[in-house]
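Narrative summary of target 7.
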Amino acid sequence: MALEVRPIRLPGTADGSGAEELLAYAGLLGRLDVESLGTSELTRRPPEVLHDLRRAEYAVRTGLGAFDAGRLVGLAEVQWEVDDGESTSYIEVLGVEPSRRREGIGSTLLEAAEAAARAAGRPSTVLSADHPVDHDKAGGPRLEPPQGEGDIPADAPAARFALAHGYALGQLYRVSAMEVAGRADEFHRRLGAARARGGDAYRLVAWRDRAPDELVDSLALAHERMSTDPPAGAIAWGLEHWNASRIRDGERRSEEVGRVGLSVAAVAADGEVAGFTELSLLPGSTAVEQWDTIVLAPHRGHRLGMRMKLENLVQLVGVDGSRERVYTWNADENEHMLAINVDLGFRPFAYESVWQRP
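Modeled conformation, tokenized:
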């Protein structure tokens, strides 16, 4: 086997000439999602993959391919913040075609991803993998993170791989799914009750795609807190630096790949953002991703998390009633946010394991 590992070649457009490697890369991403999650409805389409791999203003994302005789047999995707003060990189995807496993391809890809991160001055690597929820937990040892109640089979291929390469399990994220089809009346009713209980200390502001100019600076500060405030387990997550320009860049990128963004912010009496929540509607899919939700520490205890999420779900069914499911990711030790999600109807769907070398 003459294996070649290198960045995939990026075409001018996802449907133009020279897009063969990009399409093979996106296709393998989908097959890996089906294997680990049972669905590809969250898989990024080729135009979004292309857009992500070109992104460079605030974060660099590199797609590496393992090629055998010109055929893509494995991939890895590594990302890091552009800011010079950061040292952490994130290997968010690493996978090999099922028929080519146990040949050392995954190890070669991991080595290449780590080398790319070191060359960029980001030597602290965080590795992620997805696992179906094992409701039966039939036999065999389990791996538990330092915090939280979740666990994964110790003999899961991703776990064996990470441990063999010196990584330690630092955190589990619970991936949950909620059906939203046919629940418009319920969301309206529950939002009305939440508004009545919540009083008028905070006003909720909803928008589609572009945040109001008067909130964007305060919203950026809340986004930055999102990279430091949620539970981190034993993972040394890096700080994300946010400003108004980064907010606008994210809005432009979402629009360019065909996503619709729905957001709600809780605004305090002084005009500052006390918290926010985001939904991202994938193009060509009936799925919705629940992105960041945070209530800043001075404003907790007013049930703003539930109010904001209900407000955004009402906005969702008004904007696109064809959407069927919302997916969300939460640290397994984040009991408060998990309780809100369970109350809304989210159910465990998968786990995302997060690993880091001690």
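The first helix runs from residue 20 to 37.
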